[in-house]
User: Which sequence fits this backbone?
């Protein structure tokens, strides 16, 4: 994803709206019933609840395994390579957290919606990428506002074998109805270039029980708020100014509130969900009530019954193992963000990823940078190889054009141009490699350890950071993959100092005084 590939002006018209929001203008299809949006609940919150439950000892309750539903991890056909291990051999984990608005169970239907909603394709109305750093020192979360227009790749339903063709642009939440959560995973991988290791998907029937089980989650509002309009829009949330523990249906109202928070958009709703998540994590870590076996069992039953995961997380034991990894992250190392967006030029009620800020945030996660400690962080020195490089003329370099993106064609003749630059610099054996590639980051790959010095010599000649040279089983010899971050120019562009964009609305896990701003006209 690059600045060029995210130009809102280049986006074609999207399909008819199926977002089912609490309200809005400029849509091309009738709005579904208000009850359809009752979820608005953070999948990450439930995921953390499940994890906390498992770590407390319910790994031994085998009947919980039967509650957990499983689905294929990826329904697309363009896999993204796993992240490269760090110097200690540690690898980051990326988990996609999905909240479904499905009304296909009696419990879900009881909480809102109509019988007409039964059987319709579900929408992924909450989507969060949870990135656990390789060294387990920090965790970053990126929320995608469900009003965002993005490309959706071709997906094949694992059970029915139905093929859903790719969409050049569609509502982000449409992906779930195109074969299941595996299509949402494929969509995120295409959008970000980040390999997704697991997903967790929840419906909302267990939210009320779980919020009650932990005694409520403290939330704060800067003024009295009532999410209600004369035309019937709004979640119904009514709170007095200050901090209050919300539980049951009121917790659902908090998580689904759009009208009444900040500017009344879906962006404000993601901020409220982040506050809830942070407070939930602190509550779980400090709540002595959860030491009661009866309370924990109640929570475990509700959580596993509401959960769908990929096969890699399909048992309580596997969830327990994941919980052990997540618990290594201190509260201060948790950072919540929202993908930066701008209004879509073709419909101001819709969003598109902000061309520069969105890629800046995603690239930091892709590079396993800590969003928490990045401010003031000293640059990591480039690694140097103990393997001496051969003379440039003796290094056979293959150059691939990987500059294409989901929304932009590869830069023409890019591999040939860079191969010529290398030959000018003495690498007379440089040649082009026509293997198809689409990579967000330029890298110099090498197949065996004794080629590390050669790869670094190639990187140094083009001013590519030496850390971009890495060993890979996917190449033979030394291969330069020119990524979408280098579509023009003979010299690799200077890397700007990394900084989390302000538009990402960072919220740290230790911030205990966060309060939601109230939209004018929604106080009482």
Assistant:
């Amino acid at each position: 994803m690059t600045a060029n590939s995210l130009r809102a002006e280049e986006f074609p018209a999207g399909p008819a709206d199926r977002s089912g929001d609490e309200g809005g203008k400029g849509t091309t299809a009738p709005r579904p019933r208000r009850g359809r949006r009752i979820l608005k609940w953070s999948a990450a919150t439930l995921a953390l609840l499940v994890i906390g439950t498992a770590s407390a000892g319910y790994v031994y309750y085998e009947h919980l395994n039967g509650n957990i539903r499983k689905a294929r991890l990826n329904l697309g056909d363009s896999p993204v390579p796993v992240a490269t291990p760090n110097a200690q051999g540690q690898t980051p984990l990326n988990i996609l957290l999905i909240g479904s608005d499905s009304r296909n169970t009696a419990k879900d239907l009881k909480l809102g919606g109509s019988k007409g909603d039964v059987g319709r394709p579900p929408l992924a109305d909450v989507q969060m990428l949870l990135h656990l750093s390789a060294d387990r020192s920090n965790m970053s979360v990126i929320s995608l506002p469900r009003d965002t227009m993005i490309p959706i790749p071709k997906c094949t339903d694992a059970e029915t074998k139905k093929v859903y063709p790719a969409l050049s642009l569609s509502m982000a939440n449409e992906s779930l109805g195109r074969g299941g959560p595996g299509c949402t995973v494929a969509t995120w991988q295409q959008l970000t270039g980040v390999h997704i290791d697991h997903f967790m998907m929840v419906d909302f029937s267990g939210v009320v029980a779980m919020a009650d089980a932990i005694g409520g989650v403290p939330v704060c509002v800067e003024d009295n708020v009532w999410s209600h309009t004369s035309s019937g829009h709004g979640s119904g949330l009514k709170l007095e100014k200050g901090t209050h523990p919300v539980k049951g249906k009121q917790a659902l109202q908090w998580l689904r509130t759009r009208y009444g928070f900040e500017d009344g958009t879906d962006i404000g709703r993601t901020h409220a969900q982040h506050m809830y998540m942070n407070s939930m994590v602190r509550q779980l870590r400090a709540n002595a009530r959860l030491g009661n076996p009866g309370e924990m069992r109640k929570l475990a039953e509700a959580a596993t019954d509401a959960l769908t995961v990929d096969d890699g997380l399909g048992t309580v034991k596997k969830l327990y193992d994941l919980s052990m990894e997540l618990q290594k992250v201190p509260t201060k190392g948790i950072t919540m963000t929202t993908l930066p967006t701008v209004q879509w030029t073709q419909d101001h009620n819709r969003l598109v990823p902000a061309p520069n800020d969105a890629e800046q945030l995603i690239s930091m996660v892709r590079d396993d940078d800590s969003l928490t400690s990045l401010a003031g962080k000293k640059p990591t020195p480039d690694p140097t190889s103990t393997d001496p490089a051969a003379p440039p003329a003796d290094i056979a370099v293959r150059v691939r054009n990987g500059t294409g993106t989901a929304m932009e064609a590869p830069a023409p003749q890019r591999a040939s141009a860079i191969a010529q630059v290398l030959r000018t610099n003495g690498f007379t054996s440089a040649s082009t490699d026509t293997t198809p590639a689409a990579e967000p980051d330029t890298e110099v790959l090498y197949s065996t350890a004794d080629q590390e010095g050669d790869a670094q010599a190639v990187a140094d000649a083009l001013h590519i950071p030496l850390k971009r040279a890495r060993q890979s089983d996917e190449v033979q010899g030394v291969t330069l993959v020119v990524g979408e971050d280098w579509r023009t120019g003979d010299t690799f562009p200077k890397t700007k100092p990394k900084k989390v964009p302000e538009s990402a609305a960072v919220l740290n896990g230790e911030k205990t005084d966060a309060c939601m701003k109230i939209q004018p006209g929604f106080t009482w």
In short: The CA atoms of residues 168 and 367 lie 27 Å apart. Residues 266-286 form the longest helix (21 residues).
